[in-house]
Amino acid sequence: MTIAIVGAGLGGLLLARVLHVNGIDAVVYEREPSRGARAQGGMLDVHLETGQRALREAGLIDRFHTIARRAGQDLRLLEPDGTLLLREDTPDDAPLDRPEADRADLRDLLLDSLPDHAVRWGRRFESAADGLLHFADGGSAPYDLLVGADGADSRVRALLTDARPAHTGQNVVELGIPDIDRTHPDLAEMVGRGNYWVLGDGRSLSAQRNGDGRVRVYLSFHHTAEDWLATNGIPFGDPAAARARLIDLFGDWHPRFAALIAACDDTVLPRPITTLPVGLTWPSTPGVTLLGDAAHLMPPVGQGANMALLDGALLGLALAAHRDDAPAAVAEYEREMFERTAAAGRLSARIQDVLASPDAGRQMLAFFQPG
User: Fold this and answer.
1) Opening angle at CA 49, ends 48 and 51, nearest 5
2) What CA–CA distance (Å, rounded) separates 110 from 53?
3) Residue-level pLDDT at 367
4) Engineered SS bond to 148: which of 71, 249, 253, 294, CB 3.0-4.6 Å?
5) Whose CA is closest to 75, among 195, 163, 160?
6) CA pair distance 23, 15, nearest whole angstrom
7) So where does FAD get bound (predicted)?
8) What's the pLDDT score for residue 211?
9) CB of 134 within 8 A of CB of 126?
10) Cα separation of 246 and 232, whole Å?
11) What is the pLDDT of residue 155?
12) Cα-flanking dihedrals φ and ψ of residue 107, to 5°?
């Protein structure tokens, strides 16, 4: 059985690792030219029952613990006027239920666990037919099973469903402060060691401490049109002017939040938020399946990466258990995945609704402290 995985994200690499552990070869085809060609994003909270379970099945849990940040579980929740609603500081001996890990470190861990020949860089997938993958450079490769792990804009998805990601009404601008402990110790103290959330009426600010000392700042605008990032007057080509415009958009908030935006460097990245329909399914089709964002793109509220990791683990285990019957393995995986990720998608949508609500701060406090 020739297994081809399109996409060297977390889910695709975890699948390749579980197959490798079970003596099954697979090849990951990735459009990026090298492992360091693109920044991999910020921190992930890797959940005990999903993402960590997947890493355990892959034989990587001990290595994961070396890159996990217990302090990343810290949380501060505020209202726009500066009122502190919730502060959770993680004790040094707290269990690693949801530690943070840098996405790049986690990807490197997975890449380092695979033989060099397992990932083919610079292979942009274009189409598949009659047991052959076709790439943008004119090359091709055979497959018996094609796994689309190629993210939100998956090309493989079209082989199974007409579903496409739709805009959620949320648009985000990402900024960041490098080496915050040295450059802005006052802001470092304010943000803390983990996640810092300020939730208001249709807007939110989140700051996330990264393992390299950078704080990533995300400014969210809810109830906005799909073209809002192009029409809102933020000059993305001029970072200083963009920061000034963003400060103006948060001008009715406490001045400490304007100071956080003003301290950011020249990284100003627009990010429209899209999702696939919650509970998306397709008829099980011999020779092709999906995992991760290609299968169940969710809002970025902590579920997506964990689901992708567990998808990779469970698909790998199913293929190992049904070595001579890949269609049965895929059908078994898809049945479980559809149910599990539908539940995760409903939870993510509920959190998304809270974040977009008029009293988001108080509702999120109730979410964290029910009753």
Assistant:
1) 70
2) 15
3) 84
4) 294
5) 195
6) 12
7) 45, 103, 293
8) 83
9) yes
10) 10
11) 97
12) -65, -40
Do the annotations mark residue 45 as ligand-binding?
yes
What does the H/E/C string look like for the chain?
A: CCEEEECCCHHHHHHHHHHHHCCCCEEEEECCCCCCCCCCCCEEECCCCCHHHHHHHCCCHHHHHHHCEHHHHCEEEECCCCCEEEEECCCCCCCCCCCEEEHHHHHHHHHHCCCHHHEEECCCEEEEECCEEEECCCCEEECCEEEECCCCCCCHHHHCCCCCCEEEEEEEEEEEECCHHHHCHHHHHHHCCCEEEEECCCEEEEEEECCCCCEEEEEEECCCCCCHHHHCCCCCCCHHHHHHHHHHHCCCCCHHHHHHHHCCCCCCEEEEEEECCCCCCCCCECCEEECCHHHHCCCCCCCHHHHHHHHHHHHHHHHHHCCCCHHHHHHHHHHHHHHHHHHHHHHHHHHHHHHCCCCHHHHHHHHHCCC
Determine whether 145 is exposed, middle or buried from the number of CB atoms within 10 Å of its CB (0-12, 13-18, 19+).
buried
Q: Which two tokens stand for residue 84?
A: 């502190």
Closest among 135, 123, 124, 170 to 351, alpha carbons compared: 170
**CA dist list (Å): 40 to 102, 103, 109:** 9, 6, 13
303 contacts 347 by C-beta, under 8 angstroms: yes
> pLDDT under 70 in the chain at which residues?
371
Contact of 141 with 27, CB cutoff 8 Å: yes
* Burial bucket for residue 312 (CB in 10 Å: 0-12, 13-18, 19+): buried
Which one-letter amino acid corresponds to residue 270?
A: P
Closest by Cα among 284, 308, 282 to 294: 308
Q: Tell me the domains of the chain and their CATH numbers.
A: 3-70+101-164+276-355 (3.50.50.60), 167-275 (3.30.9.30)
164 marked as binding residue: no
- Cα torsion through 199, 202, 208, 214, rounded to 10: -130
pLDDT at 249: 96
